[in-house]
Specification:
- This protein has 337 residues and is of the alpha+beta class.
- It is 28% helix and 26% strand.
- The protein is built from eight helices and 14 strands.
- The strands form three sheets. A seven-stranded mixed sheet has the order 9-11-8-12-10-13-14, with helices on both faces.
- Helix 5 packs across helix 8.
- Bound molecules: magnesium ion (MG).
Length: 337
């Protein structure tokens, strides 16, 4: 048996890999709050009354490293800061590790690092440290970047287990743009009218924290595995049944087209600049209003959390039927982020 691409796909096989090969080996897996076994977007260390240091790590191997709407630098900076943000923490710092292939164009590397800097500078986030390694030509495909995001959360951590029956699910905007762009590029298609949505989503989290307080229950960025994976994780961790109204999910026609053309579930395509929120049912309108004001004009209510069989996601299809929306499995799109 050897390592498969699916083990790094962020779906079912990745979860199984972590549960089988990582979790059992480590004796210490948390520091008094959210830790490794919670399988959340980041870990939290209590640093005071209802205050936490939130830390998240991710590796970026996206192929190609430059794509419409961004590059691996923008992705690596935004991605880890977004994982910190969806825990409810304001991103404060980043560490980066760059492994690059000998012969990689220096001007391209400069562009990538400038993209990272642009994101950090615009958010007031500090680069606190990093490491650069070069591997001989041919022993790595171009470039791999790892980033560690660090943030501070005041108030509750927005973990998925806080969702309760009756709560509503909101998405900040159209899903699947990033996944569709990378998928299309990898299949050699021309991508002219669609861009990756990669961007920091802390402004959305901040707006909702301020508008709703404790009534903002949970948050998650639907990256690898897309909304399908995010909703399944929500159903699992909150031990509820999640209902999705597919006709309400904002999705650009090009995303649907690429997905249909290439035979993949569009709801499993990654977004890199959207967040899914769970909010108290009586605060939905306020939440949508706050998101629109923060620049997330296409924010929409897309479903709800219900009492029922724990861990199931039921989707109402646009024609009115019901289907089980399962966790994506297999290697849908290798090296999407
Ligand atoms: Mg995430």
């Amino acid at each position: 048996m050897s390592v498969t691409l699916a083990m790094g796909g962020g779906g079912k096989e990745t979860e199984e890999f972590v549960q089988r090969f990582i979790l059992p080996l480590f004796k210490y897996k948390s520091l008094g709050s959210v830790g490794l076994e919670d399988m959340e977007d980041g870990a939290a260390i209590p640093i005071g009354d209802n205050k936490y240091l939130v830390i998240s790590i991710d590796d970026y191997t996206v192929n190609p490293p430059f794509f419409p709407g961004g590059d691996i630098g923008k992705l690596a900076a935004s991605g880890s800061l977004n994982d910190v943000a969806v825990m409810g923490a304001e991103p404060k710092a980043l560490f980066d590790g760059i492994v690059v292939e000998e012969g990689f164009k220096l001007s391209d590397l400069k562009k990538i690092i400038s993209s990272m800097a642009e994101i950090l500078n615009s958010m007031g986030v500090a680069l606190l440290g990093g490491d650069t390694k070069v591997m001989p030509k041919g022993s790595i495909d171009k470039i791999v970047i790892s980033t560690v995001g660090v943030g501070i959360a005041e108030g509750p951590l927005l973990t998925l287990d806080r969702a309760r029956p009756g709560d509503k699910i909101i998405i900040t905007g159209p899903v699947g743009d990033h996944g569709a762009v990378i998928l299309a590029l990898q299949f050699g298609l021309q991508v002219k009218t669609l861009q990756s949505d990669v961007r920091p989503i802390w402004p959305a989290v901040k707006a909702l924290k301020e508008a709703l307080g404790e009534d903002l229950r949970a948050a998650k960025d639907p990256t690898r595995g897309g909304l399908a994976m995010a909703l399944n994780e929500l159903a699992e961790r909150s031990k509820t049944t999640v209902y999705l109204d597919e006709s309400k999910v904002p999705m650009r026609p090009q995303v649907k087209e690429y997905a249909d053309m290439l035979g993949v579930e569009p709801l499993a395509l990654a977004s890199e600049g959207q967040a899914m929120f769970v909010v108290s049912p009586d605060r939905v309108e306020e939440a949508l209003e706050a998101l629109r004001k923060a620049g997330f004009e296409e924010a929409a209510e897309i479903g709800e959390v219900r009492k029922g069989k724990p861990g199931y996601v039921i989707a109402r299809t646009p024609v009115g039927g019901l289907r089980l929306l399962e966790k994506p499995s297999g290697e849908l799109v290798p090296r999407i982020c």
